[in-house]
Amino acid sequence: MVDVRGLHVRFGEVEAVAGIDLQAYAGQATALLGRNGAGKSTTMRVLAGVVPPSAGTVLVAGHDVRTQTLLAKQAVGYCPDVGGLVPRATPWEHLQLSARLRRMDDWEPRARDLLERFELGDVAHRVTAGFSHGMGRRLSVILAALHAPDVLLLDEPFDGVDPIGVDATFDVISDARARGGCVLVSTHLRELAVQACTTVSVLRGGAAVATLPSGEMAGEEGARAYRGLLD
Amino acid sequence: MPTAVSSTRRAVADVGHLVRFRAGTLRRRRASVAALAGFVVVTLAVATVPGLFPDAGGDGRALDLLILLPTMLTGFLALAIVSATASGGGRELIARDPAAIHPVSPTTDHLGALLLAPLNIAWLLQAWTLIGVTSYALGTDLRLVQAEVIVVLWLVAATAVAQVVAWTIEVVRRVRHGIAWIRVVGVAVLAGVLALQLTGNLVAIFDQLPTRRVVIGMVADSAWRTVLTAAVLLGAFVVATALGAVPAHLAAHRTPQDELGVETGHYAARRRPRSPLTGMVRTDRASVWRAVPMRRGVAVLALAPGLVALAGGLPWEQLTVLPGLVASGGALLWGVNAWCLDGRGGLWRESLPVEPGVVFDARAYVLAEFLLVASLVTVALGAVRAGVPSVSELTALLCTVVVVTVQVVAAGLRWSEQRPFAVDLRSARATPAPPVVMVGYSARLALSTTLTGLVFSGLARVPAWEVSVLVAVPFLAWSTSRLLRTRRLWVDPVARARVVTAVAV
Predict the structure, then answer these.
(1) Would you call A130 and B291 a contact, using CB atoms and an 8 Å cutoff?
(2) B268 contact partners, CB below 8 Å, separation of at least 6
């Protein structure tokens, strides 16, 4: 589903991603762990078709993000790491725009269901500028999941989210895996990553340093192993 | 225990810290230094060169302008009040969100807004006009120096007084039903001025303006009169500066009602958009028309010049200057940094499966629509007393509206692509770019659109209406080619990613 080989992303003199290789598969959830500046969010932006790769090959659902960007975007649902919401549009307007651009016809029942599951049904027609950080995160996950994408990209979906939102996000990840989707979750929260994902990739200095079954990152042992990979 | 004196000292010191912080974030320091040098040169030039004209200081037009000077001084005060009121108390030295983590007092905020007030092309043009008119009116008279000192003192005192009025209005806006009260008072004032004009009493009032005493102080032969005028203006500046802190504190402790209304309001669902372009246009329109600074700004822009034209009974050939000014002002509300509309939602929007060209077209369309609405309201108001236009006059005016709109859209989107800034346009005080950059943008827009307006003003007098259309074609071709070049840049994924990631920080 996701095949990244030798990915480099440069912003002027800064190399945000320095040769990442990453594979993620259908029906699996892969966590991207690493310190600030490790290249997690930039990698997610490349997979979402927002930032073009400077070098390397990136295939998303079989589409090259460089040359088949629109097809890749159709296959992806993306929750960005910062905000991700148009300030003066309502959640319903966000969902309507996404559904229109993805040519979805019968999207409203699923949209309502997701809004209720994430407890945002009451604010569906209020602009997002007045939302708390956690509400914004929850809506971003809904927007990523609305069209049941082949590849679900969740960048820091648990950041500042209450337990109900975390559980709802777990459900979204489980649903995606159950229908054969590929899920990538970027997060700083190791324990939540272990719970939500089957595989963990640790990034350091813009490159992947290890890919392990998530069980090996659990508990105290996992914490020690993780710290060892970061040093 | 902090005292009033220690608090004020601290506030003044904090203004210095914030100015240094802002100055440190300037990306093009050489350009800023050059702009400052240019400002000094232009100011010195307008203070001296008009006085060297052959008829300067004479009994003809120079004397007429001297007689008009009290009205012009009052006009400057009125413009400063409108400008500060429209921006919710004046511009911010540091934006609200970044300021939240610092102990910045409302006094610091007030002093910062006062300091930034002159960084506005409307303020600068008015100030230069007053300085230039004074120079021309007095010629090489030895009293010119004292007169220019008085004019400068008037500029600073009027700006400080306008700040007090703007903060006070902002306090009223933030109380229950305050917005309605302000609207009622605003309409009553406008109606009163219009009634005075229509009944022919406005000129009599202009003749009795207290600013006559300021002008007498400027040209007085006795030194004590000039010193007294200077002292009164200096005192007014000091008192207004100090007094402004009071409503600034009161406003800071109340929630902005209009922002609250936008953020807690219910927006009913609309039917599914017919096409991706329609969907994009709808989202962009909501981002523009639900933003407080845009709504307030466009109301002032559309109404103020139109009402001046209405009151002054401007003829059709002079109305051609107005659409350019209005379009320039409209672009300065958001069009010069158009991609900041999405804020942090830019990353999500960029991940949607839609051709980037469609995204660009939607933004250009909404910007053009925004500018056209404002321009047409202004023209409609101005047309009320302009009589029935000739075909040439009407064609010239329509050509002006179309040409300046395309000109401004092309310039705005080009700058948006070249220099994107992460800006939160929630607050009425927010601007789409830093103050120094805004001065540069506004000067360039005002220059190009005013020149265009003057060209078509001349063409309105040409009997053959076809000439205006023929002249409009190369203007439009040039602006359209620049717009298309910006579109090609936007379609490039690397250039687009740079913009989107910059505004979504």
Answers:
(1) no
(2) A125
